[in-house]
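User: Predict the structure for this protein chain, please.
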Amino acid sequence: MPTSRRHARKIRSTASICCREPGSIRQRKVPIDYATLKLIHVSCVVSSYALFFIRGAWMLRDSSLLRRRWVRIVPHVIDTLLLGSAITLALMLRQYPFVADWITAKVVALFGYIGLGMVALRFARTRRAQLAAWLAAQVVFIYIVAVALTRNPLPWMSAI
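Assistant: Here is the predicted structure, written as structure tokens:
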């Protein structure tokens, strides 16, 4: 087992689960392990990007696969899980936007990524504009991942 995992802090949070019983609703707390939540988050990141990449390739090829129902639903489900896990991780680590500069950089870049993705997949009128927005969104995605790995809003500076 790698040293970083063995010595990783055990961080726990709780999530509420509502249990319906006849006549009443009660809540019980379920512990969420940091490593499990981070695995969910990273899995959603990979899945979200893979679907964005595939949808962009289908868009550029004018594929009929882009019009399938699951292609319009699954990315929203994954992105919702991704956002939920990101918020929970930030709360667990007590790293908040406008307090932790690297989280602020990720949030701002995320808005840029979403905007560029919307332009690429919905609003661009020409193939050239679609391609430019799609490629720019991928550059922003790489920046977000680099910030997350280095915890530095200028990730290229951490290599120096």
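The CA atoms of residues 51 and 74 lie 9 Å apart.
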